[in-house]
Every structure is written in structure tokens, then in C-alpha cells.
Amino acid sequence: MSKQFTAPEALFTRSAGNPILEPARWPYLVNAVLNPAATTVGDATVLLCRVEDCRGISHLTVARSPDGHTNWVVDQRPLMAPDAEIDSEKWGLEDPRVTRVDELDRWVIAYTTYGLGGPSLSLAMTSDFAGVERLGRVMAPEDKNGALLPRRIDGKWILFHRPVSATQMRADIWLSRSDDLRSWTAPELVLTTRDGAWWDSARIGVGPPPIETSEGWLMLYHGVRVTVSGALYRVGLALLDLEDPARVLRRCDEWVLGPLADYERSGDVPGVVFPCGMIHDTATDELRVYYGAADTTIGLATALMPDVLEYVLRPS
């Protein structure tokens, strides 16, 4: 292994340029930039960022970088903005995840729509991040944290999400299956919160779309613990079976990224690290994780894929 760990937090290294994107970098007035989806288009890294305006309403805007680390250029206008005439999204579009789907020759965007009934999940597709085709709402309230796998399994598309029922009030990770990306099966439980004082005891949600590896689907997820000072959002790792992603092969006990830096501990919502984007550079084996910091700025943390897999697979 190329990196010796003295603590789980040593697995990922924060970028020296963090936060890599801040509200001041935007070409128009905004309050916060956070929770970006991530992908590559040609040689460029593309982030689809949640942007909160000065009303508190969020939209989605693209930022591009030649190397995924520096020299970010932000689009002059949003790629997707809420339609005030649509009740399910009149209060904003939030927390996107982007999946490259080769079968469709498109990127699929899963995002939260926030409206009168609460948060729900919608899907859209794009071929160039210049325009989008909206597929509409696919999960009714309350549901959020959607992430699509890049290929079908047994002929079905797989969507991770977090439904919360009015009676059960649990916030766990589930998945549903679909033939057409529009109609979805009843949810199947994947990962649950842990009881007691655990760092992921209050609620959990899938982070970026899981990445396919030889060992399984590598999943990052956020976990929340409620303290007397408020909620703490941290990041954990799990490994799912390649052909049955509802089956959890490994789940790490410790968080691997939490709010330690000043920009993660101070902002609109202090104590938050919330990843929505992850890119594996196969040429260098670098794993780049893009995350919202304190619901105010965007950070980048990196690791080597072999290190991450070894960490996930190590004996408990």
C-alpha cells in the first residue's frame, strides 16, 4: 500500500487550494455554492454545482476545469433553474449527481426538487451540459439523495435514493429498479443507520454514483450524528456486490472524511462535509471527491484507488 494510515481521516488528502470554488467566483450574485456532481467531458472536468441565490432558492450551474483541480471557469447562467409554475420544484433544485451512461450516449442527472410536498427526486439527461432533457419527477416526497448506476443489471436500471415515510421516519439508503428510467419498482433496503452513538446514527444517504471496481461497487455515503451543538455530516465507505447492489459486501466502521478544516466548520451550516461528485482518473488511479463544505463552498479531497479499496477490504 502506498500510504500508511495513522487514522481513517488520513486516507483522503484535502486539496491545498480548498475551497476550490466559492460564491465570489460566480459571475452573478449568489449566497452559496455547494454539493457538486462531477464527471469528465473529453479532457475537462465538469462540476454541476448547487447554487443558492440570495432568496434561499437553489439552481444548478456548470463549472469546468482542465485538470479537475484548478482554473475553474463558471458558466454565465444556470444549466437548470426551478420553474415556479411547477409545485414540486418551486422552492429549488438541489444536490445533483451525474452518471455517464454509455448505452444512452448521455449523462443522466439525478437531483432533488424541493416544492410544496417536500423534497422529491427528478431525472434529466444531457449530451453536452449546454442543454438538458427533463424526464420529470420519478420519486414522490419525501425522497432525496438519488444516484444512478452507469449500466443495467439484469436488464434494469438501478437508482439509489432515500425515501422517508411519514410513519417510519427512518432515513436509510434504498434502491429501485426500472426498465425505462421513468417507472420504478418498490424500494429495496441497502444500508441502514446504526443505533446508538455512531457517527451515522441519525440518517444516511448515498453520495456520488458508486464506481464499478473489480471488488464491487465502491460507495461513498454521508452519515449524520446529532449532537448538542447540532448535526455533524461525515463521509463513510461501503462496497456493494457487482450483480446484486442491494447486497452490502463491506461497510467501514469509521468515517473517512469529516468537518475538520475551518471552511468545513464555519458557514451557513457548520460541521458539514457532503460529497455528490467522484471521479476516478484511470491514468493515475487518483480518486477525486468533490463535496460541499458547511453548505457554503466546494472542497476537493483525493486518494489513490488501490489505497481506498485496500482500506475497505481490510479485516475488521
In short:
By secondary structure, this protein is mainly β. The chain contains 2 helices and 21 strands. A hairpin with a 7-residue loop joins strand 17 (230-240) and strand 18.
Q: Which outline best applies?
A: globular
CATH superfamily: Glycosyl hydrolase domain, family 43
Strand elements, count: 21
Average the pLDDT over all residues and give the rounded result: 96
CATH architecture: 5 Propeller
Question: What do these coordinates show?
Answer:
This protein is mainly beta. It has a single domain, classed as Tachylectin-2, Chain A (5 Propeller), CATH 2.115.10. It is built from 2 helices and 21 strands. Strands 14, 15, 16, 17 and 18 form a 5-stranded antiparallel sheet that branches. Strands 1-21-20-19 form a 4-stranded antiparallel sheet. It has a 4-stranded antiparallel sheet with strand order 2-3-4-5, with no helix packed on it. A hairpin with a 6-residue loop joins strand 8 (118-126) and strand 9. The mean pLDDT is 96.
Key attributes of the depicted protein:
single chain, 316 residues, mainly beta, Tachylectin-2, Chain A, four-stranded antiparallel beta sheet, 21 strands
